[in-house]
Structures are given as C-alpha cells and as structure tokens.
Here is the input.
Amino acid sequence: MIQRIQTVFLIIATILLAFVVFMPVAQIIGTADDAVYELGFKGLIGTDGTFPEFSSIPMSILIALSVGLCIISIFLFKKRMLQIRLCVVNIVLLLGLEGLMFYYVRAAQSAIDGTASFTLIFIFPLIAAILVYLALRAIARDEALVRSLDRLR
Here is the structure.
C-alpha cells in the first residue's frame, strides 16, 4: 500500500541509506603527508585512488541489511506484526550503524594520524532510524484500528 504514511517514511529512510552507500561519511586529512582520504561504504579510499589497509566490511554489511529491511518492510504491508518486528530490528541496526560509523572514523583517524571531518551523510542513519520509528508507530496504529474493528463484528 504505497499510499500509507508508513510506506512514505520507509521509502525516505531507504533513500537516505542509499546516500550513505554512494557518498563518503567522513574526510580524513593526514597530518604527515597532507593526503585526503574518504571513508564510505567501500572503506577508506584516498582521493588519488590509493587504498590504505583499512577495511569497513561490517559497516557495509550493516548498511546493506538496513536497506534490505526497509525494502522488505515496505512490501509486507499485509503482515503488520511482522512489519513491526522488522522495524524494531531495523532501528537497532541503524543505531548500531551510527555507532560503528563513529568508531570507524575515529579508528581511521588514528590509523592515518590525521584529522577527521564528518560530512552531512554521517547523520543519515540516525534520521533513517527516526523515520523507521515513525513508520513503526503508524503501523501499530493501523494494527490497533484493525483489532478494534474485529471486536465490533
């Protein structure tokens, strides 16, 4: 049901997480060689194309799981209780992703011995978690309405 407000919230959350996939989360400038590195979905990449030995595979897995759960939740509109459970799991994953992204930025900053500057994309998982929470409330409201109508019959 595309016209429901929870579907709109979940679609916006999916779009925000797509930005996290395609854009860097932070820029790290090395103090020794003034090289600029960007931390994103693929890991730490230098602007000149170099790859220092720093992997962010768990962050990439969490982003992919969160995007997948948002998309699956959109299409489970007939199974509201399962949709609610998936939204709760997605909120926990998104908050964990935010913490993991912060950890990776700090770890990359200390590995390169540089200074980090966060981009606007860094807060998108937090905004997506808020949107998924709003979707969860709307789904719960729909479930309560359906249950109250079942009592009337």
